[in-house]
Design a protein that fits this description.
It is built from 2 helices and 6 strands; from the N terminus they run H-E-E-H-E-E-E-E. By secondary structure, it is of the alpha+beta class. The chain has a single domain, classed as Nuclear Transport Factor 2, Chain: A (Roll), CATH 3.10.450. It has a 6-stranded mixed sheet, covered by helices on one side. The longest helix has 19 residues. The termini are far apart.
């Protein structure tokens, strides 16, 4: 069947809302974006994947002042995987309180639930070298 233009808008807004909620400290509202059993894979940062909302909230609070003050998402690319599942690939820019910034790629699996579209799996890949290290 594929996803519609309305689905595309809803999914893009879902992805965008992550930064708004994190930057305002509304971590409990992340449940509006993720499935209850979502995997938040931060293994590229040397940590174990986080399972469920409590683990995501605990990790963010543990980072404290080391959290970005601004999470920005760009370059949203959506690929239809199945009727109720979409793959999203986006670029993320994190701006820190000292003015430095970092870049990541989010690889998301997004599923349609009775509550609407939700992220069921997010893999975060850090960018540490220009041209993906292929220079």
């Amino acid at each position: 069947m594929g996803f519609t233009a309305d689905d595309r808008t809803q999914i893009t807004e879902l992805i965008s809302m992550h930064g708004h909620l994190c930057d305002s400290g509304e971590l409990e509202r992340l449940d509006d974006l993720f499935t209850p059993d979502a995997v938040y894979d931060v293994s590229d940062f040397g940590q174990e994947p986080l399972l469920g909302s409590a683990a995501r909230i605990e990790a963010a609070r543990a980072l404290g002042e080391r959290n970005p003050v601004g999470h920005h998402v760009t370059n949203v690319v959506l690929t239809d995987v199945a009727d109720d599942r979409v793959h999203a690939r986006t670029k993320g820019i994190g701006v820190y309180a000292d003015g430095t910034a970092g870049s990541v790629t989010y690889e998301d699996t997004i599923v349609r639930t009775p509550q609407g579209w939700r992220i069921s799996h997010r893999k975060i890949r850090a960018h540490r070298a220009p041209l993906g290290g292929r220079a």
